[in-house]
């Protein structure tokens, strides 16, 4: 049986895999793909489980608002209706009456086409995507400090070759298990791993130093570490002078963050703050004595635990300050990086589905960028709309007097994944028209007026950009079920019905060729990348401009200069603010959220795969808290915040701080609790910290407590 090489449909590691078969699709290892070397987590191994599933949508559906019932219709009827309603709403309320919402799992081609459809066909500024809730704080900070945001500015395998690895708010052993082998190999070489997390996760079990701060205080911890580095003379003065600007003000600002004060704010012992700083400043080298005069290579990686806060971008800036002060950014096997979450979280933010960006990671407010992209699209630059609302602000505007009256959603299960989700559901209900393109009837699709069934990963080709900035190719392995269309075909069909003169290609390789031209000369330059090169080279790292000779791509960035015009990195003064909501007498504990191994994001796909355990949510709490509440493992507990309440079985564990509870977010109800306070720079909601009250729940008579999954 011949097989096709492709990539997992889920997280940003984008593990390589082989797919074979027609009726029953089989996943096997693609050993030669270096990112995962044939290893996958259970989500990847079971990814074919949705192939042939009865839950796949195969015909467009129209919902009767009176009865809530769906009716199957043909594609022409569905698209005619959507186009007619869009035209009518825009005629009355203006072009911004229609919004578009994308996703970080869409291929680069779809993300690009969605942005083009919104700006050039609909001429609406109202477009954003769920990647805003993934890594936007790191993207904002990376751009401000280093001049360019590429999640990891080096290959992931560099982790093995650093000396000290610091993971801030990352549980990669559970969220992307094949990546954890790099931690093991680093430690086998004699390197050290530091994990900073309010929970003792499977990743923390691999740590040489585990630091367990109060949720939302990673920024204060970074200030304290930098304070100790300055006080102990560990700052790399030559590097700071030659490759950065702004250090003096930052140095002065951290003078007030001595370790005992940090201890009071973060709950991390002052001695441990000093121990962490000493480790970062050490000259210990993994794999041998090295040059005794040379400092240790230090790599700092942040993830959602540090970033999904109303202070997320400042927190990342604070950790970049630490890396810069130690002279690590732009040094081989060292520096700062972000572990992006969603499958195409990186590419998804580069090609135009974000409210403030045009393809190639260009700014929509830059006249030269607008002229370039308008030229590729064959439209007048003046006709392009300006910057729109960020994802959550867009949702809050739906159905309001000044807000959009209709929305098209591609690849996002908003009603589960947005914070303060009950209010989001109300806003969706206030729309005149909600259109959802999806592969299954997700919780958001179930609320739509029109549902459009589209192809899933194994049924289509397209590029993705993984967490390293490596552009890879997802190859079609099977024929889609009859009745579904690709997102590209949906957009082209709507554009034609709207009478737009703008051409939207439906062949993904053709779209990629156009994307290359649109990205040429931009920060994320893909112009030298072709599908054939990706096949031949197992992916190509951007930037990769087109030239007279093939550009090799850029696995490692910033070795010579940073992305700012003067080539220098920027220190930024940042202040600890803490979470927008802190515990008080009414809501006395912290609530934090996250992922579990067997599920992915809102679970729209993984909860439908039989080989993956669908345990439902649980509330992880410390034995001391359980004792105080009078509850125990498996008993139902009620978690209440200022926004809502949910009940789930208790999972009692010493892995969590006694003042904090953890709930995984793959199931309905969890995000009804989370706080919608936004980071001022990135507009990231504060998913990771809010104040909550926990109490034993009273089950209705006859209902037994749920067994707690291991
Ligand atoms: S979910 Fe992530 S880690 Fe797991 S197989 Fe897929 S890409 Fe790899």
Please tell me about this protein's structure.
- The protein is an alpha/beta fold and 710 residues long.
- 28% of the residues lie in helices and 17% in strands.
- It has 22 helices and 30 strands.
- β1 and β2 form a beta hairpin.
- α3 crosses α20, α7 crosses α11 and α7 packs parallel to α13.
- The longest helix is centred in the first third of the chain and has 19 residues.
- Bound molecules: iron/sulfur cluster (SF4).
Describe the SSE topology.
Elements: E1 3-7, E2 16-20, E3 26-29, H1 42-45, E4 61-63, E5 70-72, H2 75-93, E6 98-102, H3 108-122, E7 127-129, H4 136-146, E8 164-168, H5 172-175, H6 180-188, E9 192-196, E10 209-211, H7 218-231, H8 237-243, E11 244-245, H9 247-253, H10 259-266, H11 270-280, E12 298-302, H12 304-307, H13 312-325, E13 335-338, H14 345-348, E14 357-358, E15 362-363, H15 367-377, H16 391-397, E16 406-410, H17 414-417, H18 421-429, E17 433-438, E18 450-453, E19 462-465, E20 470-474, H19 487-497, H20 508-519, H21 531-537, E21 540-541, E22 569-570, E23 589-594, E24 619-621, H22 623-629, E25 636-640, E26 645-652, E27 660-664, E28 675-678, E29 685-686, E30 690-696
Parallel strand pairs: 6-7, 6-16, 8-9, 8-12, 9-10, 11-22, 12-13, 16-17, 17-18, 23-27, 24-26
Antiparallel strand pairs: 1-2, 2-3, 4-5, 4-18, 14-15, 19-20, 20-21, 23-30, 25-26, 25-30, 28-29
Helix pairs in contact: 2-19, 3-19, 3-20, 4-13, 7-10, 7-11, 7-13, 10-11, 15-20
Iron/sulfur cluster binds at residues 8, 10-11, 13-15, 36, 40-41, 43-44, 176-178.
């Amino acid at each position: 049986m011949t097989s096709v090489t492709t990539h997992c449909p889920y997280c940003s590691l984008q593990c390589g895999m082989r797919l074979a078969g027609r009726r029953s699709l089989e996943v096997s290892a693609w050993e030669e793909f270096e990112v995962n070397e044939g290893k996958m987590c259970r989500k990847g191994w079971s990814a074919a489980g949705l192939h042939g599933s009865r839950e796949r949508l195969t015909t467009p559906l129209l919902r009767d608002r009176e009865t809530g019932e769906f009716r199957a219709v043909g594609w022409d009827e569905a698209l005619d209706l959507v186009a007619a309603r869009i035209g009518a709403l825009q005629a009355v309320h203006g072009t911004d009456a229609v919004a578009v919402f994308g996703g970080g799992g869409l291929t680069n081609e779809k993300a690009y086409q969605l942005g083009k459809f919104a700006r050039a066909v609909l001429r609406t500024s109202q477009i954003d995507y769920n990647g805003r809730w993934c890594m936007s704080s790191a993207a904002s900070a990376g751009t401000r400090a280093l001049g360019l945001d590429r999640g990891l500015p080096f290959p992931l395998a560099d982790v093995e070759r650093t000396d000290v690895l610091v993971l801030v708010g990352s549980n990669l052993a559970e969220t992307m298990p094949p990546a954890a082998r790099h931690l093991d190999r680093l430690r086998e070489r004699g390197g050290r791993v530091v994990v900073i997390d309010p929970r003792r996760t499977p990743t923390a079990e691999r740590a040489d130093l585990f630091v367990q701060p109060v949720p939302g205080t990673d920024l204060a911890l970074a200030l304290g570490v930098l304070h100790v580095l300055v006080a102990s003379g560990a700052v790399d003065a030559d590097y700071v002078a030659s490759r950065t600007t702004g250090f003096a003000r930052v140095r002065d600002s951290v003078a007030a963050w001595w370790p005992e004060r940090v201890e009071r704010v973060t709950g991390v012992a002052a001695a441990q703050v000093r121990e962490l700083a000493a480790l970062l400043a050490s000259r210990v080298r993994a794999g041998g004595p090295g040059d005794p005069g040379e400092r240790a290579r230090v790599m700092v990686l942040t993830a959602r635990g540090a970033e999904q806060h109303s202070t997320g971008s400042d927190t990342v800036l604070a950790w970049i300050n630490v890396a810069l002060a130690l002279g690590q950014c732009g040094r081989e096997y060292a520096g700062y990086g972000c572990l992006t979450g969603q499958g195409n979280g990186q590419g998804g933010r580069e090609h135009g589905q974000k409210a403030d960006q045009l393809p190639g990671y260009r700014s929509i407010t830059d006249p030269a960028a607008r002229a370039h992209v308008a030229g590729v699209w064959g439209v007048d630059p003046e006709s392009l709309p300006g910057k729109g609302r960020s994802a959550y602000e867009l949702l809050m505007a739906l159905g309001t007097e000044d807000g959009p009256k209709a929305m098209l959603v591609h690849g996002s299960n908003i009603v589960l994944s947005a914070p303060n989700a009950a209010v989001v559901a109300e806003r969706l209900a206030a729309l005149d028209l909600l259109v959802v393109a999806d592969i299954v009837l997700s919780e958001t699709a179930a609320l739509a007026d029109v549902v459009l069934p589209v192809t899933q990963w194994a049924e289509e080709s397209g590029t993705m950009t993984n967490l390293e900035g490596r552009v890879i190719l997802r190859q079609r392995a099977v024929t889609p079920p009859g009745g579904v269309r690709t997102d590209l075909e949906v957009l082209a069909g709507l554009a034609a019905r709207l009478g737009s003169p703008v051409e939207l290609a439906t062949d993904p390789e053709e779209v990629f060729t156009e994307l290359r031209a649109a990205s040429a000369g931009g920060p994320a330059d893909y112009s030298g990348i072709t599908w054939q090169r990706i096949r031949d080279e197992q992916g190509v790292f951007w930037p990769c401009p087109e030239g007279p000779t093939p550009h090799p791509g850029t696995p490692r960035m910033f070795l010579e200069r940073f992305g700012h015009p003067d080539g220098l990195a920027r220190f930024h003064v940042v202040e600890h603010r803490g979470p927008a909501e802190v515990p008080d007498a009414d809501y006395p504990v912290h609530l934090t959220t996250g992922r579990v191994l067997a599920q992915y994001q809102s679970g729209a796909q993984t909860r439908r795969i039989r080989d993956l355990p669908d345990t439902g949510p649980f509330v992880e709490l410390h034995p001391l808290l359980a004792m105080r509440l009078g509850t125990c493992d498996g008993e139902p507990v009620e978690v209440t915040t200022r926004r809502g309440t949910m009940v789930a079985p208790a999972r009692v564990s010493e892995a969590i701080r006694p003042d904090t509870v953890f709930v995984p977010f793959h199931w309905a109800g969890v995000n009804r609790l989370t706080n919608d306070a936004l980071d001022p720079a990135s507009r990231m909601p504060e998913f990771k910290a809010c104040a909550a009250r926990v109490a034993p729940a009273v089950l209705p008579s006859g209902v037994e407590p749920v067994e707690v999954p291991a």
